[in-house]
Write a structure and sequence with these properties.
Helix content is 38%, strand content 26%. Strand 9 and strand 10 form a beta hairpin. By secondary structure, the protein is α/β, with parallel strands linked by helices. The chain is globular and about 50 Å long.
C-alpha cells in the first residue's frame, strides 16, 4: 500500500531523516515509535504528502506520488485521513460542522453531507453531540470528532500523529478500541506514530523503531518487543 525508499529530510544543519525505507501492507496497522526528536512527525508529514522529502521516493499502490504537484497532490490527499494529538478542530463550528467541513471542500451535495455526518457520528459513538460546541466536549469526545472528520471523504489510509498523547489512560484505551473497530469495519490501512509503548501493543501488527532519523529496528510487535536488538528499542521496551 505505502512504500518509502531512501527518504531523507534536512532542516538547516540537521538531518531529520536519513535513508528511511518502510513498506506498509494494505489493511495493516503499522506503528512507528521513537523518542521525542527522533523524526517521527517529519516522517508522517512526508508519508502523508504534507511535506516533500529532500531525497527518496514514495509509492502508493505502486504509483510514485512524491513527484505529484498541484491538483494531483490534493486528489491523492483526499484518500488519506489524519488525526492529531491536539485535535486541530475548528472552534467556530459545532461537532457536525467540523465533520462536514472536508465534505464541503470536496464538493459533496448538502443531502450527501447530512447523511455522511449522521453515519460518522454513529460510527464514532457521538450521535448525541451533533450540535454541541467544542467547549462542551471532553478530550476523548474531541478526538472522536477529529476521527470522524478524518474519515469523512472515505480515505484508504488513516494517519495518527500521537493521537492519544493528550488523553488520560482510560480515554486512551477507548480511542484505541475505536481505531481497532474502524480498521476492521472499514478495511483501513492505519499508520501511527507514537512514543507510547502501550499504543503499539494495543493496536499495531508491525512496528518500526526510529532513532535520530533512521529506522534502527523493525518487525512484528511480538518480535521487536519480545526480543529488542538495538539500544534504542531496548530503551523504549524496558523504560
Amino acid at each position: 500500500m505505502i512504500t518509502l525508499k531512501g527518504i531523507s529530510k534536512r532542516y538547516a544543519a540537521v538531518d531529520a531523516l536519513k535513508d528511511v525505507n518502510i513498506s506498509i501492507s494494505a489493511g495493516s496497522v503499522y506503528g512507528i515509535i521513537g523518542k521525542s526528536g527522533a523524526g517521527k512527525s517529519t516522517l508522517l508529514r512526508i508519508m502523508s504528502l504534507l511535506e516533500p522529502p529532500d531525497g527518496g521516493e514514495i509509492y502508493y499502490k505502486n504509483e510514485r506520488v512524491d513527484t505529484l504537484r498541484g491538483r494531483e497532490v490534493l486528489m491523492r490527499r483526499r484518500k488519506m485521513g489524519m488525526i492529531f494529538q491536539n485535535f486541530n478542530l475548528l472552534g467556530s463550528r459545532n461537532v457536525a460542522g467540523n465533520i462536514s467541513y472536508p465534505l464541503e471542500i470536496a464538493g459533496f451535495h448538502k443531502r450527501q453531507i447530512h447523511e455522511r455526518v449522521d453515519e460518522l457520528l454513529e460510527m464514532t459513538g457521538i450521535t448525541d453531540k451533533r450540535k454541541a460546541r467544542l467547549k462542551e466536549l471532553s478530550g476523548g469526545q474531541k478526538q472522536r470528532v477529529a476521527i470522524a472528520r478524518a474519515l469523512a471523504v472515505y480515505p484508504e489510509v488513516l494517519f495518527c500523529d500521537e493521537a492519544t498523547s493528550a488523553l488520560d489512560p482510560q480515554t486512551t484505551r477507548s480511542i484505541l478500541t475505536l481505531i481497532r473497530e474502524l480498521h476492521s469495519r472499514l478495511g483501513l490501512t492505519v499508520a501511527l506514530i507514537t512514543h507510547q509503548m502501550e499504543v503499539i501493543r494495543a493496536v499495531c501488527e508491525e512496528v518500526a523503531v526510529l532513532d535520530e532519523g533512521q529506522i534502527v529496528e523493525r518487525g512484528t510487535v511480538d518480535e521487536v518487543f519480545g526480543d529488542p536488538k538495538t539500544a534504542a528499542a531496548k530503551e523504549l521496551v524496558y523504560a
